[in-house]
Design goal:
The complex is a heterodimer of chains A (118) and B (114). Chain A has 118 residues and is an all-beta fold. Helices cover 0% and strands 51% of the residues of chain A. The N and C termini of chain A lie far apart (41 Å). Classes of the chains: A mainly beta (118), B mainly beta (114).
């Protein structure tokens, strides 16, 4: 079974600075998808960024980028130019590329709470 | 607007009183799923449905039931709620299973069982 580990429960960043959130995962599969979700105080789950394991290029979405290290099974999220609105809980998640039946689920880490200091 | 809706958003109930949390999507999605979120545990899948009349257990199905009689609706049923089912519940849907399809989440239902 796949597992996702987010070892840092909390992080803090100064507004306009850069912060990196760590995530590691364990899987025996070679083809899969990795995600970062943001959960603000409203509790809505918002997809921030997605990475396909078969792609070597790291995904980027505006101020958000990932460092995907497949061999190390590491998937960190970098937030540049942090804004007050980035304060939220962030979840790393894994999904098998087979994605049928039980493999269709998202496996989540425990989450990390990010605070942004003005 | 494409969305997943859940009702109620907040619910306080007592042990043993049957309840249903509704989930509806307007995107003609085949796949729907329920997750629960607990502090320090992240989100865990309760049940999922590949299509109408096709449902199966996720990782934490005990104490829950689901049904999928219509494509758009996927209610979560707690026939005899217990305090350990106090949690934040999310419904999610995607067009199909398969690698490229994003799962869309509902706004969440905060359930407290006393």
């Amino acid at each position: 079974a796949q597992t996702v580990t987010q070892s840092q429960p909390e992080m803090s960043v100064q507004e306009a600075e850069t912060v990196t959130l760590s995530c590691t995962y364990d899987t025996s599969e070679s083809d899969y998808y990795l995600f970062w979700y943001k959960q603000p105080p409203s509790r809505q789950m918002i997809l921030v960024i997605r990475q396909e394991a078969y792609k070597q290029q790291n995904a980027t979405e505006n101020r958000f980028s990932v460092n995907f290290q497949k061999a190390a099974k590491s998937f960190s999220l970098k937030i540049s130019d942090s804004q007050l609105g980035d304060a939220a809980m962030y979840f790393c998640a894994y999904r098998s590329a087979r994605s049928y039946g039980a493999n269709s689920k998202l496996t989540f880490g425990k989450g990390i709470t990010l605070s942004v200091r003005p | 607007e494409a969305q997943v809706t859940q009702n109620p958003r907040y619910l306080i109930t007592v042990t043993g009183k049957k309840l249903t949390v509704t989930c509806s999507q307007n995107m003609n999605h085949e796949y729907m799923s329920w997750y629960r979120q607990d502090p320090g545990l992240g989100l865990r899948q309760i049940y999922y449905s590949m299509n109408v009349e096709v449902t199966d257990k996720g990782d934490v199905p005990e104490g829950y039931k689901v049904s999928r009689k219509e494509k758009r609706n996927f209610p979560l049923i707690l026939e005899s709620p217990s305090p350990n089912q106090t949690s934040l519940y999310f419904c999610a849907s995607s067009l199909r299973t398969g690698s490229s399809y994003e799962q869309y989440f509902g706004p969440g239902t905060r359930l407290t069982v006393t």
